[in-house]
Amino acid sequence: QVQLVESGGGLVQAGGSLRLSCAAPGRTFSSSNMGWFRQPPGKEREFVAGITWSGGYTYYSDSVKGRFTISRDNVKNTVYLQMNSLKPEDTAVYYCAAPARAFFSGSDYTHTTNYDYWGQGTQVTVSS
Predict the structure, then answer these.
(1) 3-state secondary structure of 38
(2) CA 71 to CA 1: how far, in whole Å?
(3) pLDDT of 102
(4) How far lies 52's CA from each of 4, 10, 32, 43, in Å?
(5) SS3 55
(6) What is the dihedral of CA 69, 17, 87, 92, to 10 degrees?
(7) Is 79:34 a contact under the CB 8 Å cutoff?
(8) If we measure between CA atoms, which residue out of 24, 81, 74, 3 comes closest to residue 47?
(9) Neighbouring residues of 103: CB distance < 8 A, sequence distance ≥ 6
(10) Are 87 and 68 in contact (CB under 8 A)?
């Protein structure tokens, strides 16, 4: 099984920035599509961003487009989510995820059921 570990969450003021990291210690997912999801309190898990294995294509939900940036460093075997201009509605537990099989379309990134491996999540709280 693939172990994913998120880090970088915390408490920030509205308008601030935060960078989340997702790593797979002792393993590699350099050839894998990757996604970030979040689950606000009392709500279902929702898609945030996705990235191809090479990092050449990225995908974002409308709610974060222009504010968040997903990237990856395959040498470090790490995926990042840079979050800028944070809003209180961004408050959620953020998860990184990887599928067992490669995606071939952008829409594949947006569904939780397409992913096989998940981290335990990292809390992001944005105060107003």
Answers:
(1) strand
(2) 23
(3) 86
(4) 17, 27, 7, 27
(5) coil
(6) 80
(7) yes
(8) 81
(9) 33, 50, 52, 109, 114
(10) no
How is residue 95 written in tokens?
């998860």
* Residue of 81, 103, 101 whose CA lies nearest to 93: 81
pLDDT per residue as tens digits for the range 37-54: 999 999 999 999 999 988
* Phi/psi at 49 (5° precision): -160, 155
| Residue 29 clears pLDDT 70, i.e. is over it | no
81-118: per-residue pLDDT in tens? 999 999 999 999 999 999 888 898 999 999 999 999 99
Who contacts 29 (Cβ-Cβ below 8 Å, separation ≥6)? Answer: 2, 4, 77, 79, 98
